[in-house]
Amino acid sequence: MTKKERYDYPITVASKVIIRKGGPILLTREPQDHTWMPGRLGLPGGKVLLNESILEGTKRKIKEETGMECKLVGLFKIINILMPGKTIYHFVFIADYLSGKVDLKNLYSADLR
Length: 113
Prior knowledge:
By secondary structure, the protein is of the alpha+beta class. It has one domain: Nucleoside Triphosphate Pyrophosphohydrolase. Helices cover about 15% and strands about 40% of the residues. The protein has helices at about 5, 55-65; strands at about 10-20, 30, 40, 45, 70-85, 85-100, 110. It has a four-stranded mixed beta sheet, covered by helices on one side. A three-stranded antiparallel beta sheet has the order 3-2-7, with no helix packed on it. A hairpin with a 2-residue loop joins strand 5 and strand 6. The longest helix is centred in the middle third of the chain and has 13 residues, at about 55-65. It is globular and about 50 Å long.
């Protein structure tokens, strides 16, 4: 393996969100057919689409996975995940709940906790 091959991996950018609304933290369950972590509980979020900013993608994923409108208020941390053949950057944001009601029939998430 050459030096270039060791470091020249495709990069994936994704976001996760800690939604503040009272005390508990909202978790989503990934669908069983999800390639990343099928059936696992985690923070709402996901990959950014082509030509979409990290903030636009994060707001879109909140709506798709929870049905809620939220205001992003800050960046909590950035996680760099090195995997065989790829690098993933997870931007973890904090958001305040604004409005919306969960309707699992119309959401991407399999479950919310």
